[in-house]
Amino acid sequence: MKRAQRIAIITERLIFNPNTFFTLTSFSRELEAAKSTLSEDIAIISDTLKQSGAGFVLTKQGIQGGVSYCPKYSPEKALKEVQAVCKTLNTPNRVLPGGFLYWSDILSNPAIIKKLARIVAGEFLNSGADFVLTMETKGIPFAFMTAEALGIPLVMARRMSKVYEGSAVSINYFTGSGSLESMSLPKRAIKPGSTALIVDDFIKKGGTALGMCTLMKEFDVQVAGMAFMLSQNQQQRFISGDISLMTLSRPSEAVPYVTPSSWLKDRVSEGEE
Amino acid sequence: MKRAQRIAIITERLIFNPNTFFTLTSFSRELEAAKSTLSEDIAIISDTLKQSGAGFVLTKQGIQGGVSYCPKYSPEKALKEVQAVCKTLNTPNRVLPGGFLYWSDILSNPAIIKKLARIVAGEFLNSGADFVLTMETKGIPFAFMTAEALGIPLVMARRMSKVYEGSAVSINYFTGSGSLESMSLPKRAIKPGSTALIVDDFIKKGGTALGMCTLMKEFDVQVAGMAFMLSQNQQQRFISGDISLMTLSRPSEAVPYVTPSSWLKDRVSEGEE
Fold it and tell me: What Cα–Cα distance (Å) separates residue B43 from each residue in A120, B16, B38, B39, B129?
């Protein structure tokens, strides 16, 4: 097998399985190549991905050595992707009666969601999160793709516990609009002492997010961070320390307007790597 | 830029964007290489992916020529992946009180779901489906990843219509257990005259699946096919013509047992490509 072929196979494997560790030994066996040769292949892949803004390859040296692919967009690429989504969201025909913004189609569009999820994942590569937690329903694809990019599982909290999921832990929480809701997780869904990354599509006051934090306390789970696709500007919030990709404001009561979040914009101006 | 680098970049782009068309012109501009050179690069990638069982690259000739990546597992690879999932599902500690099988963790595990979704997608590459339809909640990741692999959007039907999604079409349907449920979709979620692929996690009698078919009729949408991750053996079904990856049987009332579906096994014995 020639270099070009090995690079095609290794790149396919790494890109399809982000944040998944592959030993050099397994590649060496499959591709019938010396580890030194494979190391050269991987160096080329790593440099090339980095230059194209798609992320980088982490290398672990030694006998148990191997590689994993970390998707991480540059701040410029992240901002550019989010700007494109904002432009789509700001088309006038998306405004529904009541001033609501129609964006369900965006939330379940793989071509868009997987890019946005990689921006969030890139921020939490070293957070130690063992799983992503989300609350059903609309944010599931975004949370799932964030988990995918981080190479960890997703856990979905439900409004009600289901008989087919066994014993469950439920909590009650107040939404931002003041109504009392329930949130439930099967007991066996989470290992006590692990670490969660909370991901959802939308945050306003943060009632649901606070509910998820409360639920994690019940499981003796730490929260490594909270990330949302869209945040609505609010004076009073139930939570802090979260990041969001886009901000929803209302220049007039009936017209929603979406812009990249200041977090995203600041990263570019600060020249953060 | 050398061949090895070009192959790394093109492979990354194709694998991250399955069933998405890239023109040779755009690659030629970005990689500063002649189209004839790129055609050679792509031939290497295509042959290599095919040999490794990861799918193939479709090439469109001519001035508007370009390429797209079609993920398609060989029947053997598909069966092997599903067998591994069955083995996980058949561990005794997954049996819950009432004889229910705990598998929520599998349904939201990206490492597993994306492989299973590619098996379904490989079957519907030429189905003409414009979108994948699923009914909330548990099957969303599987349906989303099937849509991702096919390069089309996902549409999620909900139990209730939401004010923030505008006017909706709702239908009532009977579940297999005889209860009456509702299913709703925003009017603007679907273009009349398009084609749907129905994907869900589980099918028993097919009440929900029939409901989705009824809903599609309301939208003047054709159904290209129906695919499920797990099917429970039933004498009387509301629908037919669907495929599933795994079959759930109950050797004794309290013990669920999961095996690869006969559809998957037959493909291997028939030597289908």
Answer: 34, 18, 8, 6, 27
Read off the pLDDT of residues B181-233 as tens digits, 9 standing for 90 and up.
999 999 999 999 999 999 999 999 999 999 999 999 999 999 999 999 999 97
Nearest to B144 among A47, A108, A189 (CB): A108
Distance from CA of A139 to the nearest CA of B (A): 10
Q: Which of B11, B44, B164 sits opposite A12 (nearest CB)?
A: B11
Percent residues over pLDDT 90 in chain B: 86
Query: A243-248 long-range CB contacts below 8 Å, 24 or more apart?
Result: A243/A120, A243/A123, A244/A203, A245/A82, A245/A85, A245/A116, A245/A119, A245/A120, A246/A82, A246/A85, A246/A86, A246/A89, A248/A101
Q: Which residue has the tokens 């053997």?
A: B76
| Distance in Å, alpha carbon of A242 to nearest chain B alpha carbon | 23
pLDDT per residue as tens digits for the range B54-82: 899 999 988 889 999 999 999 999 999 99
Per-residue tokens: B103: 């598998």
Q: Is the pLDDT of residue B273 over 70?
A: no
ipTM: 0.96
B-contacting residues in A 96-135 (Cβ below 8 Å): 96-98, 100-102, 104-105, 108-111, 113-114
Contact B20 A111 (CB under 8 A): yes
Q: How confident is the model at residue A103, as a pLDDT?
A: 96
The Cα A165–Cα A194 span in angstroms is 20
